[in-house]
Write a structure and sequence with these properties.
Layout (H helix, E strand, L loop, with lengths): L2 H15 L3 H14 L3 E3 L12 E6 L3 E6 L10 E7 L4 E12 L2 E9 L12 E10 L5 E7 L18 H4 L11 E4 L8 H12 L7 E11 L4 E3 L5 E4 L2 H14 L7 E7 L16 H10 L2 H9 L2 E5 L2 E2 L22 E3 L10 H13 L5 E3 L11 H9 L2 E6 L1 E3 L6 E4 L2 H14 L8
Parallel strand pairs: 1-2, 4-13, 4-14, 14-18, 15-19, 16-17
Antiparallel strand pairs: 2-3, 3-13, 5-6, 5-10, 6-9, 7-8, 7-10, 11-12, 12-20, 16-18, 19-20
Helix pairs in contact: 2-5, 5-10, 6-7, 8-10
């Protein structure tokens, strides 16, 4: 098995574990702890040492991992990589029970800019965080994941919607509540009772007495896989943006200990990032300030630092090539993509892009560029948000992807491993990152 095959197998295993932002952070924390990173708590004093490896979690759904340079401490600048832990999905409503025509359904909200059509006729499961009262009357929370396919959203047959292939639209209130089971006559099912039963199965000692609330996401149970006649592609749910989270983790684990480095994986990017744990919140700035030691040192730190925001890019689709600028259509398996937008929807500039091209050339990885068509709106990332909130120089890059925001996305089998090589070089690049 080649090095790329081994990497992709590990990536697929990570994607299988990381079914919600809470499970993403749990998996990342487990990997970091195994690599010698020490868990910190925000409500405690920190004693950071040169050469030390640390991580801190906020809300269970965002994480910052960092290393203090032995030869170049935080004041000399920090090499930052950013990604996000959330993906578009369907989330259960607080009072979700719907009993229609003898079926139990779950009412859902659409989280983020989900492509809804692919959610039909998939084997769905449910996972997330549940808050409950234990036997001692204390409020506690725990993660659950049903893992098995427990729900489905059946399509309406073509015979009952003859225009389905021409003009089908989806009503998010009425068309997409998943079906969980068929009920017997007179049967009533309480959703919270189902969750309590699941809590006790996964956490037998939790003592759950009453489920108080929850944040639960439906997801596709079809596992990630390497696909294509020649194994050219990776197909999976949540490639946007868990691929970047995993790539950042793998690069961070190759840190040589010389310069200070950091990986931030924020929640809530798909809904604007404005939250205590999102990129528009204070989490990253708080960690950087504590790394610096005081406010003046923090100002010097941010001026000497650089962030690479890693978030998937739109690969040029062979069936829809006209949706791209003719000179900026990234191909899968042709290297990471620098994302550029004159209106600052991406935060890249000539200096940060030039450094990335130089680093990529040093490790023999090709680089592509993406610019949205001038007559189309452009998406955005945590890059401009972080640059505006923290004041750090920023580059937006990503791996070329098809079907972004679908329940199953497609990326090149070579691209993730190649991006690890570039980001590892960024973390371990000797000397300053260039003049401000």
């Amino acid at each position: 098995m080649s090095e790329q095959d081994t990497f992709n197998n590990d990536l697929c295993a990570f994607l299988a574990r990381a079914t919600t932002p809470f499970h993403v952070v749990s998996a990342l924390a487990e990997e970091l702890a195994a690599a010698g990173f020490i868990a910190l708590a925000e409500d405690e004093a920190w004693s950071l040492q040169p050469g030390g490896r640390y991580y801190v979690v906020r809300n269970g759904s965002s994480i910052v991992a960092f290393g203090i340079g032995e030869q170049a401490g935080p004041e000399e600048g920090v090499r930052l990589v950013g990604a996000h832990t959330d993906s578009p999905c369907l989330m259960a409503k607080p009072s979700p029970e719907r009993q229609r025509q003898g079926y139990l359904q779950v009412g859902v909200q659409v989280y983020g800019g989900a492509l809804l059509n692919p959610w039909f006729d998939r084997d769905l499961s449910l996972a997330g965080r549940v808050s409950f009262r234990d036997a001692q009357g204390q409020l506690r929370s725990a993660l659950i994941d049903f893992r098995d396919p427990i729900a489905v959203i059946p399509s309406l047959a073509i015979h009952l919607d003859r225009e389905a292939n021409n003009s089908r639209t989806i009503n998010a209130q009425t068309d997409i509540p998943p079906i969980l089971c068929q009920l017997t006559e007179g049967e009533k099912v309480e959703f919270r009772a189902l969750l309590r039963e699941r809590l006790l199965q996964e956490h037998p000692d939790c003592g759950a007495q009453e489920v108080l609330d929850f944040e639960l996401c439906f997801y596709d149970t079809q596992p990630a896989a390497v696909v294509g006649l020649r194994g050219d592609f990776i197909a999976s749910a949540r490639l946007d943006n868990l691929l970047s989270c995993y790539v950042g983790l793998c690069a961070l684990k190759q840190w040589d200990g010389v310069s200070s480095v950091l990986l931030v994986c924020n929640d809530h990017e798909e809904v604007g990032s404005l939250s205590a744990s999102g990129a528009q919140g204070p989490f990253l700035a708080s960690v950087l300030e504590r790394m610096a030691g005081d406010r003046a040192a923090y100002a010097r730190l941010t001026d000497r630092s650089m962030l690479i925001s890693a978030d998937n890019a739109h690969g040029i689709h062979p069936n829809y090539a006209d949706r791209h600028d003719e000179n900026h259509g990234p191909l899968l398996n042709r290297g990471p993509v620098i994302k550029i937008n004159a209106s600052q929807r991406y935060a890249s500039n000539s200096e940060t892009a030039g450094l990335f091209r130089m680093l990529a050339a040093e490790v023999e990885v090709p680089v592509q560029s993406f610019v949205v068509r001038s007559d189309m709106a452009c998406g955005s990332t945590i890059g401009p948000i972080t640059a505006g909130a923290v004041g750090v120089r920023t580059l937006d890059i990503g791996v070329s992807t098809f079907a972004m925001h679908s329940i199953r996305e497609l990326a090149g089998a070579a691209d993730a491993a190649n991006l690890v090589r570039v980001l590892a070089r960024f973390y371990n690049f000797p000397g300053a990152l260039g003049a401000r």
